[in-house]
Amino acid sequence: MKLKRFVFYFSCFLLILIVWCVASSHKRRNRPTNYTINETPTKHITIDGIFPLPTHRVYPNVKSEDSVIPMRFFKNNFGKSVHNYKWLHNPHTRCVANTTSPDIFLLVAVASASWEFERRDLIRKTWATVNQVSGKNIVYVFFVGNDRRNNKKLEMEFNEHHDVVMEDFDETYKNLTLKTQGQLKWITYFCPNIKYAIHVDDDVFVD
Fold first, then answer.
1. C-beta of residue 194 within 8 angstroms of C-beta of residue 107
2. Helix (H, G, I), strand (E, B) or coil at 107
3. pTM to 2 decimals?
């Protein structure tokens, strides 16, 4: 008799515990976030970007126990980027919202070789002419490296279209990683109001 009573009470305890765990998990999943996509007003964007970065865009570098990455890469310099290349051309107002251009739904980051002027012009005249879909705004930005041979032409292109980001690292194939890092940094600093970003190359046709 005592054994049956023990089993009954123990089963009730387990059932209550399971229900509590499930309810707590559901509550955590549905808890509203502390920020929205529009938390950082674009009016605060300067030529240096949003800095220091909003707290929700800062993540601590935590080294796992089995990591072989040197400790120097885990310095907690919150809000600072290890990608410290200077912007030579920077359309920093590209994502600034105003009454005629509300927040950006999609930013298309196009990795382009600095000398591919014709490709960029072709993109501007074809699939990059689509700047709104179902009332949602789309913005296009080209990313190039430093090319001393073509700097004059690049400056003219930037002044005409204001859609080219140029960083101070050599435009070479081996620096593609730097270009990708530069895209992520630029988007973080200058486009806090976008909902989505997509990376494409300048030899891709988007339909």
1. yes
2. strand
3. 0.65
